[in-house]
Structure formats: C-alpha cells, structure tokens
Specification:
Strand content: under 5%
Shape: globular
Order of helices and strands: HHHHHHHHHHHHHHH
Structural class: mainly alpha
Largest sheet: none
Radius of gyration: 22 Å
Helix content: 55-70%
Number of strands: 0
C-alpha cells in the first residue's frame, strides 16, 4: 500500500527585492492621511451631522507607515541575527536614508518658506529646525501648534521616522546581542528571542505614554519617538517571522505565514472595524484643541497598531505572486501611487492649507467637492517630486550599489 504524497511545503514570503504589494500598501497609507487632512481642514471631522467623524480614522495611515518602515528597514538586521550574515553597514545605511528622505523634503521646506512662510524667511532658527527635521523639539516657536507650521503639520511623523532611522542600528545591535547571547545552531531559538526583545521594545511605548501625564499633560512628549516604538515593533516582528520562515523549514512557520496571507479578507475586514473605532473619541479627541487623556492615548496606540497589523500582516507574510493581494495592491494604479507616495505625503498639506486659505474656506469646506481637487493636485505634485527629485537622487546613489545578496537558504 503506497502512502499518500507528502504535501508540498508552502513558499515562504520574500525577504528581499521589490515587493509591489507593499508599495501599494504605502499608497493606501498616503491616501488615508490625505483624506484626513482634507476633512480636518474643511471642518468635516468636527461637524456633528452624519458620519463625517469617520474621516478622523484616516490617522491610521501613520501607524501603517511606521510598521512598513519597521518591516523593510529592520529585515536585513533580522537576517543577520538569524543566519549569521553580515549586518548592514551603518554608514551606508544612514547615507541611503538621508538621500532618500531629505532632498524632496528640503524642496517642500524651501517652497513653504518662499510662500506661506515668507514673513519668517530671515529667521535662522526656523530654517535650521525645519531643514534638520527637529521642529517638534523646539518649543515656543511662531507656528500655530506643537506640530509645526500649519502648512507642514504632517511632518511631525517624518521627524519621528528620522529619529527611528538614526536609532535603528543601535536597537538592532542590542536585539541581535540578545538573540545570540546563548550560542545555538537552532534558528528558532534565536527568532523567538528576537521576538521577545522586540516585544519588550514595543511595550516601552506604554510607560512612556503614562509619563506624558505625570504632574499634568506634556503634549510635546506625544510627538517624540519613544511613544511610537510599538508601531515600529509591529513591522520589526513581521520582519523576523518572514526571515524565520525562509530559513527554517523544519517548523511550521511558513505554514502559519501562508494561513495569515490566505486569510487576507478576514484581516482586512478586522482592519476596517478597527478603523471605525480609531475614528471615535475612544482613541482621542477629534480636535487637537481638546486635551487628551492617558487612556485615550493608550487606546490610540493599541487600536492604530492593531489596524496597521491587520492590514500589513497578510501582505508581508504572503508568498511572492499571491494573486488576490496582488490584484488589490499590485495593480498598475496602486503601483504608481505607491511610487509617488512619499511626494504625495510631503506636498499634500502645503497644497490643502494654501488652497483653503486662498479660498477663505478653512473649516467651511465640503469634502465631497474638495477631496477630488486636492487629491489630483497632491498626486500631480507627488509625481513631479518623484521624477524631478527622488528618482534622479536614487539613480545617483545607486550607481555604486553592490549586487544584492540572495535570499538565505532554508535549513534542511
């Protein structure tokens, strides 16, 4: 009697190369932030009529961005910790980050200072803080809120991103030391230790959030990196799981990845439900003028992080070529929007605030008519930014790039 053929092992998720579905998810995050900014500037979020409060959930674009950074940028360090390959060179890594982020951002700052910020064009502190992405660390400046100038308000999240970029090599070194502290050839042991370390790292967000409310409320602390460790940790944990699945086929990690990716519809339905919760006052006030509280701040982290995880996990853990996810996030439109998503993010609020002020319609707009116009203008600006600034800089910095190392081979 012959035995039944052994089921083929599922293909593990990719851990290198260009993944168009992740690019499409970046487009989703950028568009979510765009919708939020249009609705907030139009005054729709605080309008009690109907379900306009749902636009407030567009803030989940920020945890999606942070989790994506955790996944993509920590993945080489996760591979180094798990299979012993050389870790990325810190100097090369930081140079690439600077050239990827700063040139397009500097263009936005210069444009702002020559237009809406021209009254302060001679202020050296303003120039230095904006050009170095340190504006949320400088109190008592002339801008309207702790976020910075209204036309550049979304850049607070870029300040957080830059701080995380700088700290990542040190965080990765500490996590790698913890994973390898006890010598073992078992990649599963090292992977579990990495996940424990990342869990502790992410959990630091919660005592930090509590510290924001010790002896009063300290709103500036809510804009600094430690508050958002947990959102970056989501992507970092997914990076470990993807590398683990590729390295060790003796354990059912690849099967678990496949199960999550096959359940993409259920995950995204859960993300939609979490989006609705994130839009309610349970996760914080719908207007920045109302003081926040400890529990709403904590729920903001939890609900936003869970929403990002539910969206990202099935995409990150899917094998290359997963048809359903590819059809939604890897189609030509989403790929295009993903490519220009950084420019779309950078230019949108400068365009939105400038247009509403010129039309004298701040807090008196209509999302139904304003959003298509603002989206078209922001997409056009993002396209120009990509082709005139981002792509040429990327080409210049890639000329000396060494050949990409192949994915690590699985253990037998």
């Amino acid at each position: 009697m012959t035995s039944a053929p052994r089921a083929a092992r599922p293909t593990p998720p990719p851990i290198s190369g260009h993944q168009v579905t992740l690019e499409g998810l970046r487009a989703v995050a950028a568009l979510a932030v765009l919708v939020y900014h249009v609705a907030a500037t139009a005054g729709s979020i605080t309008n009690p009529a109907g379900a306009r409060w749902l636009f407030n959930g567009g803030q989940v674009g920020v945890p999606i961005f942070f989790a994506l950074s955790g996944l993509l940028l920590y993945r080489p360090w996760a591979a180094a910790a798990l299979d012993g390959r050389a870790a990325p060179r810190v100097g090369t890594y930081l140079r690439k980050r600077v050239f990827r982020i700063m040139p397009a951002y500097w263009a936005v700052v210069v444009c702002f200072m020559l237009t809406a910020g021209r009254d302060h064009i001679g202020d050296l502190v303003t120039w230095v803080s904006l050009m170095t992405l340190t504006q949320t660390y400088v109190p008592d400046m002339w801008w309207e809120s702790a976020l910075g100038p209204a036309h550049l308000g979304q850049m607070w999240s870029l300040v957080v991103e830059m701080a995380w970029y700088v700290s990542l090599p040190f965080t990765a070194a500490a996590l790698g030391w913890f994973a390898r502290r006890k010598s073992t050839a078992d990649v599963g042991v090292r992977a579990r230790r990495l996940l424990i370390g990342i869990g502790v790292y992410g959990a630091l967000s919660f005592p930090y959030t509590a510290a924001m409310f010790v002896q009063g409320r300290h709103p500036l602390m809510g804009l600094w990196l430690p508050r958002f460790f947990v959102w970056f940790a989501i992507g970092m944990a997914l990076a470990v799981v993807t590398v683990w699945a590729r390295l060790d086929e003796r354990r059912p990690v690849a099967w678990a990845c496949r199960a999550v990716s096959d359940s993409w519809a259920a995950c995204w339905i859960a993300a939609a439900m979490l989006y609705v919760v994130a839009a309610t006052p349970a996760t914080g006030p719908v207007t920045l003028q109302v003081p926040d509280q400890f529990w709403t701040s904590t729920l903001h982290l939890v609900v936003g992080g869970l929403c990002a995880a539910a969206l990202l996990a099935p995409v990150a853990l899917a094998p290359a070529g997963q048809p359903a996810i590819g059809a939604v996030l890897g189609n030509p439109v989403m790929r295009f929007l993903g490519r220009i998503s950084y420019g779309l993010f950078l230019w949108q609020l400068l365009i939105i605030v400038a247009w509403y002020e010129a039309a004298d319609r701040v807090f008196r707009g209509d999302v139904a008519t304003d959003l298509p116009l603002m989206a078209a203008a922001s997409i056009a600006a993002g396209t120009l930014s990509y082709h005139l600034i981002e792509r040429p800089v990327q080409w210049l910095t890639r000329r000396d790039r060494s050949p990409r190392a192949p994915d690590p081979a699985p253990s037998s």
